[in-house]
Design a protein that fits this description.
The protein is an alpha/beta fold and 231 residues long. It is 48% helix and 14% strand. It has nine helices and eight strands. It has helices at 17-28, 35-48, 56-62, 90-99, 103-118, 129-133, 147-161, 167-183, 205-220, and strands at residues 6-10, 31-34, 68-70, 76-78, 81-82, 122-126, 139-144, 196-199. The strands form two sheets. Strands 2-6-1-7-8 form a five-stranded parallel β-sheet, with helices on both faces. It has a three-stranded antiparallel β-sheet with strand order 3-4-5, covered by helices on one side. Helix 2 packs across helix 4 (90-99), helix 4 packs parallel to helix 8 and helix 7 crosses helix 8 (167-183). The structure holds cytidine-5'-diphosphate (2 copies). One cytidine-5'-diphosphate is lined by residues 13-19, 153-154, 157, 200, 203-205, 208. One cytidine-5'-diphosphate (CDP) is lined by residues 13-14, 18, 35-37, 39-40, 96-97, 100, 126-128, 177, 181.
């Protein structure tokens, strides 16, 4: 039987994880899982139901009712409603690092994420994929980029999507989230010991994708053929 492969991509906000992960998954015909979108969906669920994401008691009171779906392209659905764009808006970005930090929330999400990786080869991106979710991943990438590069990229992206915010506000938001994410008690953002660092500050998306594919071929000992687009 053909074995399943997994690629874990972690790193700070707006370092280019999901853009590259999505393309790599498509080229390899793997499932793409955007774990940030899952935590964002939970945060939106709390906001829409009038719960304060900073209160553990309030957040956990809705956890048993939280149901979401993510399709192969990384679209996220809350009770059948496509919230892919909605979860990128500022109210969610501002609160997500609080809502995702509770132990019970992480346990539920990790269980869902591992289930998704059970029967299929996956590319999964987030903060704790190489350390907690898929500790035996075939390839672990820890993606970084300067705050300036990340803020500039997210600024352009938000402008295209019509999400308000100055470059300074965006830089502050990503630094604030990085700080909370890397200092929380449960599954903080940190590099797995066996991860490979990829600094994307001066890389195009194409270069990033090429590098990840090449590292994967070497690490997993498989030849990847661009013309076949599948393993
Ligand atoms: O795209 P961006 O880097 O802005 O964020 P994201 O990947 O959508 O993740 C949003 C937030 O969810 C992060 O800032 C973390 O607080 C949380 N997150 C997490 O704790 N663990 C993950 N595996 C993925 C995201
Ligand atoms: O998933 P993560 O938050 O790490 O970052 P992303 O959402 O993939 O990337 C943030 C923005 O940077 C997106 O608009 C990408 O198109 C852009 N980007 C870029 O311009 N150059 C790269 N090498 C990677 C991403």
């Amino acid at each position: 039987m053909k074995r399943n492969y997994s690629i874990a991509i972690d790193g700070p906000a707006a370092s280019g994880k999901s853009t590259a992960a999505k393309i790599v998954a498509k080229k390899l015909s793997f499932l793409y899982v955007d774990t940030g979108a899952m935590y964002r969906a939970f945060t939106l669920f709390l906001i829409e139901n009038g719960k304060n994401p900073c209160s553990e008691e309030e957040a956990l009171s809705l956890l048993p009712l939280f149901e979401m779906k993510e399709d192969k392209e990384g679209h996220v659905y809350l009770k059948g409603r496509d919230v892919t764009s909605r979860v990128r808006e500022n109210d969610v970005s501002n609160e997500v690092s609080y809502a995702c930090a509770y132990k019970a929330v992480r346990e539920k999400m990790v269980e869902l994420q591992r289930k998704m990786a059970e029967d299929e080869s996956v590319v999964m991106d987030g903060r704790d994929i190489g350390t907690v979710v898929l500790p035996h991943a075939d390839l672990k990438i820890y993606q970084i980029a300067s705050v300036e590069a990340r803020a500039q990229r997210r600024y352009l992206e938000n402008q295209k999507k019509g999400i308000p915010g100055t470059l300074e506000e965006i830089a502050k938001d990503i630094e604030r989230r990085d700080y909370i994410d890397s200092h929380r008690e449960h599954s903080p953002l940190r590099m797995a010991e066996d991860a490979i660092v990829l600094d994307t500050s001066n890389m195009t998306i194409e270069e990033e994708v090429e590098e990840i594919l090449s590292l994967f071929s070497k690490k997993a000992g498989v030849k990847w053929n661009d013309t076949e687009q599948s393993l």
